[in-house]
Write a structure and sequence with these properties.
61 strands, 11% helix, 5 helices, 8-stranded parallel β-barrel, 800 residues
């Protein structure tokens, strides 16, 4: 009966048997339920279940007995040499493991026809195997010999594998024979244990399965091309000298195939570079590195376009190096490929750990073009005692503007103890020419811990968002602005710093400038800002927009600073610093064990060689070490930026002395927030008598109605009458509108929601009224009393 038809019948019988068993079992079980407790039904049920179980158990035997074995002929690639009617030899390999006693043969004797036979013995004495057969039917026309390889199972050829061992012991000749049959038949080549030498260029087009212990050894200058490699995390290839392997038709190339060492005892850099070569010259699939610690000290591992190096996770795959060289580098210009859209992924899901490396190195060094590349979920762990950069991209190409560092993404990475005085955890460096800038790069969802400079980029339109910057130690100032910044934007504009979290170390002191956003031109830092600040963190923005044209953040050498008293210091370096420490500027001082402190300049003067600075607060101690000032004004270009589905906007148009300190925003009086149709603002005024005075007034535009709410606090500061410190608190609300062509009018009455007064200020009052086109918040003081009034006012409008 046809083998395939038999298989179909067996499958149908199996299904029928299963259904019949379930049906019978169901009937008996129903009967058993109906006659619960009757022993005869219990016995019948048990007997039937036992019978079904027996039939199912014998199903394997049924299939084994019905499906016949099929023997397939396998041609011995080596041509036989006739000795006599019952003997022939095979030169070039040991066939004793294949042509075992009892093995059936078919000898092709040319014009004398095919002669079946059986092996009596096969002995090997280099370089030939001598075969003796049972029947003396061989002739001197013997041209080829084939032997039967028994393949059992439903599949005609069993597993279908060409087993290399069936062609003899590992040798170049036997490997060629096995490859020839596998390539011609398209069946998988199963490479058995041993080192199979590849003495010349070889192409294996059939699928290749090297079992553990089987290695293809490529000699110097030769190349092996393999397809469909199927192997686990064990070595499958070795390359001597400049020998190489190219791999096609796989979803991933494993560095383990090239002998990497997950214990870190042996160096793995050669294995990784060989795996990368195999992928980039073949399948372009990711190079996958398994769990373990991999030592890359011997040589830098080089990135190439379209080849991702992918670990098993940050905690699973760790790369270490103690070399005075980058751990990873660029083997070619990493720029976008013609006709290919999207990002090339370079590295992911691993850790680069140089914590035991005492050298000043770049963990990743990219030279020249770096465009449309992505690094994701990589942990960079450095040595805090060395000067090390995480990702350093350096562009020196003097060619045209096309060779920028642009549109790269650093996503979900962690940086720890990566401390560089001149570079940074992420450092895009040009050589100073304006056409060589880093533009439109993204650093997102990263964490920076215990670092010196987090992100340093020279360029335009770069985006920092959703990152965490954590500095447990106070930064060290360097002369003239220096480079020790948390975020350093230089020589560029249009950069965005959005949705980040800046953390400071606990107990460091008041307002340490853990984050300095710095620009070397007056273009400054532009874009929407919506940053969260942690405890003891501060955000100091240097450089304002072009139209404000302010100086950059300014520091002086520590050895020129001296303590005078708690609010006075001297910079005695012979330079006039008065323009940098002008009245009103904020000053930051570092005082060793006393930590950080901050105050504003109250007065400044220069008398050679000393610049004397008086502060508005007593913050200084005898441990004073260094001092720095921020630029004039806010140093922030606040621009409208959607943050709620493109509807809500946040901007500060009146920012004049703004600071971001300790997570707070300090604004001058008159500043306000616009949030959709709502405005929140502050106002202040002073009175010395009972004259009604406007605390706030506004011209109402035509075609709108408003709801105004004011919280007002009064404080007596002096005067001939009353007592300093007498207070009053008020809350007033009103509606107002102005029709087209009409004057301002109240909607209903002013509502007094709260009035709380010291008895001495009982004659004071607060109310809203209108006059012509104005809505006014009016306060009434008292004679001979100096009163300061402060208000927070909220206005909600509606109309055309």
């Amino acid at each position: 009966m046809n083998r395939f038809l038999k298989t179909i019948i067996i499958c149908l019988l199996t299904v029928g048997l299963g259904l019949g068993s379930m049906t019978a079992s169901g009937v008996v079980y129903d009967a058993y339920k109906l006659t619960f407790g009757e022993a005869r039904w219990q016995v019948k049920y048990n007997n039937l279940v036992t019978a079904v179980q027996t039939e199912i158990t014998s199903l394997g035997t049924l299939i084994a007995n019905w499906v016949t074995t099929v023997d397939s002929l396998t041609l011995i690639q080596t041509a036989p040499t006739y000795s006599d009617a019952s003997t022939f030899t095979l030169t070039g390999g040991d066939y004793s493991a294949v042509l075992t006693p009892g093995k059936r043969l078919v000898a092709d004797c040319g014009a004398d026809g095919l002669r079946p036979n059986t092996v009596v013995s096969c002995t090997y004495a280099a370089p030939s195997s001598t075969v003796v057969v049972a029947t003396a039917n061989l002739t001197n026309n013997l041209a080829a010999v084939s032997y039967y390889a028994t393949r059992n199972g439903v599949n005609t050829y069993g597993s279908g594998d060409i087993v290399a061992a069936e062609f003899g012991a590992p040798s170049w000749v036997n490997l060629q024979a096995a490859v020839a049959l596998a390539n011609s038949s398209g069946r998988r080549l199963l490479l058995t244990p041993g080192t199979w030498p590849v003495d010349d260029t070889l192409s294996i087009t059939a699928p290749l399965c090297p079992v553990p212990g089987a290695v293809l050894g490529v000699v110097d200058t030769k190349t092996l091309t393999a397809s469909g490699v199927d192997a686990g995390l064990h070595q499958a290839f070795s390359c001597a000298g400049s020998g190489k392997v190219i791999i096609n038709q796989v979803e991933a190339v494993k560095s383990a195939w090239f002998g990497d060492d997950p214990t870190g005892a042996a160096d793995s850099s050669a294995a990784l570079n060989l795996a990368i070569y195999a992928s980039r010259n073949g399948c372009k699939a990711p190079v996958v590195v398994g769990p373990g610690t991999f030592n890359l000290t011997a040589a830098t591992v080089y990135f190439y376009k379209s080849v991702l190096i992918k670990g098993a996770g940050q905690e699973a795959t760790v790369f270490i190096s103690t070399a005075n060289a980058p751990v990873f580098g660029s083997g070619e210009d990493l720029s976008s490929r013609a006709g290919v859209y999207g990002f090339d992924k370079l590295l992911s899901d691993c850790t680069i750990n140089t914590s035991t490396n005492a050298n000043d190195i770049d963990q990743i060094y990219i030279h020249d073009d770096f465009n449309m590349q992505e690094i994701t979920n990589v942990a960079f762990v450095g040595n805090s005692a060395a000067t090390q950069n995480g990702l350093h991209v350096y562009h020196t190409n003097a060619a045209a503007r096309a060779n920028w560092m642009y549109h790269n993404r650093i996503i979900g990475c962690d940086f720890k103890n990566v401390k560089s005085l001149s570079g940074g955890c992420v450092w895009f460096e040009g050589d100073g020419a304006t056409e060589r800038r880093a533009n439109n790069n993204e650093v997102r969802f990263c964490r920076f811990d215990d670092y010196r400079t987090g992100v340093r980029i020279a360029g335009i339109g770069n985006e920092l968002s959703h990152n965490t910057f954590n500095v447990p130690d106070a930064p060290v100032f360097t002369t003239g602005g220096g480079t020790d910044f948390r975020v350093h934007f230089s020589d560029g504009y249009g950069n965005g710093i959005n949705n980040n979290w800046f953390e400071g170390g606990l107990g460091v002191g008041l307002d340490p400038p853990h984050v300095l956003i710095y620009s070397e031109t007056t273009a400054g830092v532009k874009g929407g800002i919506w940053n969260a600040l942690g405890q003891n963190a501060s955000l100091v923005y240097d450089y304002q927009t072009v139209d404000l044209n302010t100086d950059r953040q300014y520091t002086v050498a520590a050895d020129s600073v001296s303590f005078v008293d708690s609010d006075t210091l001297i910079i005695g370096d012979g330079t006039d610093h008065t323009s940098y420490f002008a009245v009103g500027r904020r000053v930051y001082v570092y005082q060793g064990v006393d930590g950080w402190a901050t105050a504003k300049v109250n007065a400044v003067s220069y008398s050679a060689p000393d610049t004397t600075i008086d502060l508005d607060d007593t913050i200084l101690t005898a441990n004073l070490e260094s001092v720095a000032s921020s630029g004039y004004g806010a140093g922030i270009a606040w621009t409208p930026r959607p943050i709620l589905n493109g509807i809500g906007k946040f901007y500060i148009p009146h920012l004049t002395t703004g600071e971001l300190t300790s997570g707070n925003i300090t604004l001058a009086e008159g500043s306000y927030f616009n949030i959709g149709n709502t405005k929140v603002l502050t106002a202040t005024v002073s009175t010395t008598d009972a004259t009604v005075t406007s605390l706030y007034l506004v011209t109402l535009p035509e075609g709108y109605s408003w709801h105004y709410e004011a919280d007002v606090v009064a404080w007596q500061t002096g005067g001939a009458a009353g007592t300093e410190g007498d207070s009053a608190i008020y809350k007033r609300t009103c509606g107002a509108k102005r029709l087209t062509g009409g004057a301002a009018a109240l909607v209903g009455s002013v509502v007094d929601l709260m009035t709380q007064e010291d008895g001495a200020l009982a004659a004071c009052n607060v109310t809203f009224n209108v006059s012509a086109n104005l809505l006014r918040l009016r306060v009434t003081g008292e004679a001979d009393k100096n009163i300061t009034w402060h208000a927070t006012i909220k206005a909600v409008k509606s109309g055309n």
